[in-house]
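The material for today's practical consists of a large collection of protein records. A record pairs a protein's sequence with a compact description of its fold. Instead of coordinates, the fold is spelled out as a row of discrete tokens. We will come back to this pairing of sequence and fold again and again. Here is such a record, shown just as it appears in the course material.
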Amino acid sequence: MLSSLIKEHQAKQAAKRVTQEQKRKECIAAANELTQALVDHLNVGVAQAYLNQKKLDAEAKLLHQGAINFAKQTQQWLALVENFSSALKEIGDVENWARSIENDMKIITETLERAYETTQGQPTSNQ
């Protein structure tokens, strides 16, 4: 009877060990599946963040290049406006010069007319 109890006890212990080992393996497999699912989920987020960062970097490069081009165009426009302003000043200077010449010519014309009138009013002594 004692040996049958021991055998029965050993059989129950072996069955419990098998059940425990099976549950342990199932638990490990479930933990591995959970870990893999979490890692996959995180990897998707990381991959998306990486792609977004690449897009942002590309957009930033384009924006930087656009800003450089805009600055160049602005400098060119400023140079054109400065040249135009200088040309307008020169036109104004030419206009003033022309007025000055015109006034000088009027003075000369008036002086010659007076001199002519004066000489016409006097009798000539050569006759």
User: Anything to note?
Assistant: The mean pLDDT is 90. DSSP finds one helix and no strands in the chain. The longest helix spans residues 2-121. The CA atoms of residues 71 and 99 lie 42 Å apart.
